[in-house]
Automatic annotation (TrEMBL):
Origin species: Secundilactobacillus pentosiphilus
Identification of the protein by name: Uncharacterized protein
Top-level taxon of the source organism: Bacteria
Length: 46
């Protein structure tokens, strides 16, 4: 029973870590795309 609980805790921790990395990566990518979009918009609307 203890082995099942430790595997479950490991799975939960891994899921939280991977989820956090995915959310952080998405936010970073969105900010980067927004910055690039702003630069393109400035070039188009001089």
């Amino acid at each position: 029973m203890d082995a099942i609980q430790s595997v479950f805790k490991f799975m939960v921790a891994s899921t939280l870590i991977v989820g956090g990395v995915l959310v952080g990566g998405t936010v970073f990518a969105a900010k980067k795309v927004d910055t690039i979009g702003d630069a393109i918009q400035k070039k188009l609307h001089r």
